[in-house]
Amino acid sequence: MEMFCLLWLLVSLVRLSPALPVSQEPEGNPADRSVTPAAVEMATGDLVPTHFPARRAAQVALHHLNTRHGSPFRVFGLQQVHKATAEDVGTGGRKYSLDFSVTDYGSSGSVLRCSADVLFPRTEKHSPPEVQLRCEGLQQISSSPEEEAFYQKHISPDSAVSAHDIPDSCGNISQDMKPFWHLARVAASFIMLRESSENTEYNMAQVANVSQQETSEKQLMLKYHVLLHDFVSQEIIHWKLLSSWSPDGGVRVLETEWQPKCPHATKPPSAN
Ligand SMILES: *[C@@H]1O[C@H](CO)[C@@H](O)[C@H](O)[C@H]1NC(C)=O
Ligand SMILES: *[C@@H]1O[C@H](CO)[C@@H](O)[C@H](O)[C@H]1NC(C)=O
Question: Cα–Cα distance between 174 and 179 in angstroms, integer?
Fold first, then answer.
């Protein structure tokens, strides 16, 4: 059984990012990600919508969407890229223009059609991608009765939640923990958006642990240790983060702290 579960975890990590056109990517040690964009052959013009370069840019737009509109009951996943182009913008970087649709994995299951421009700046030090996004139907989103109920249930400090391994090694998430998993995915999107470059594709892999913090504010306060998966390097990257949420205040990320895997490492991958 244990073997089976481990296998599930591996398979699901691979499945997070289907359709792998490896040829576009630099080879070698992930620590060498200081490869300047100019050294990497990047596709320009119309891109194949199902292929990696288009999907990677759409994933960044999705992280942006989640940081703006995510909640414990609303988290968007990529459904399909319909159209994608890429162009160099002078010395300023590379811009991807995308048409795609997203699914709300939270509770509504609704599908939205979006378009976005994603600019990966070409700078010596890493700077986050810049995203401009429009989605049909986003204006109608308002906080739901289940968000309100979840908030009321957990805002009283004598019911502090703590949990670990969401999902567990078999991929199971209990019904009670789903909103905490969704909130972690949204909060992790703030980090994944900030850390993304043309040489990464981040997905949320697992919540190692979560504990609710006491607060005098009218916000749920949650401390997470999350595991992010970078599809390009196949690395699992650990971050600690402190996130707050309320139906009115939305999701905010107050602190983030990269967790080195090796004792001598001193900076997160994007700092390379
Ligand atoms: C996952 O959870 C379900 C429902 O709680 C349970 O029936 C099932 O046995 C679990 N699966 C594994 C592999 O543990
Ligand atoms: C949370 O998980 C991480 C990674 O497994 C571990 O290093 C850390 O000690 C855990 N923290 C708590 C409070 O359990």
Answer: 10
Task: Note the pTM of the prediction, 2 decimals.
Answer: 0.84
Q: Cα(120)–Cα(124) distance, rounded to whole angstroms? A: 12
Q: Which atom of ligand 1 has the smallest separation from the CA of 168?
A: 14
239 lines ligand 2 (CB under 6 A): no
Are 131 and 116 a contacting pair, CB within 8 Å? yes
The CB of 225 under 6 Å from ligand 2? The reply is: yes
Q: Give distance in angstroms: CA of 172 to centre of ligand 1.
A: 6
Q: What residue's CA is closest to ligand 2, atom 13?
A: 209
The burial class, CB within 10 Å (0-12 / 13-18 / 19+), for 52 is buried
**Residue 225 alpha carbon to ligand 2 centre in Å:** 7
Identify the nearest ligand to the CA of 169 by its number: 1
Residues 6+ apart with CB under 8 A from 189: 62, 63, 64, 66, 67, 70, 204
Q: Which ligand is nearest to the CA of 8?
A: 1
Pairing, β 130-135 against β 111-121: antiparallel
The ligand whose atoms approach the alpha carbon of 5 most closely is 1
**Sign of CA pseudo-dihedral 183, 271, 130, 110:** negative
Band (pLDDT 50/70/90 cuts) for residue 107 is confident
- The answer to whether the peptide bond before residue 263 is cis (omega within 30 degrees of 0) is no
String of DSSP letters for 60-116: HHHHHHHHHH-BTTB-EEEEEEEEEEEEE-TTSEEEEEEEEEEEETTTT--EEEEEE
Q: Over the chain, what is the mean pLDDT?
A: 85
CA 97 – ligand 2 centroid, Å: 39
Dihedral angle at the C-alpha atoms of 76, 77, 83, 85, nearest 10 degrees?
A: 90
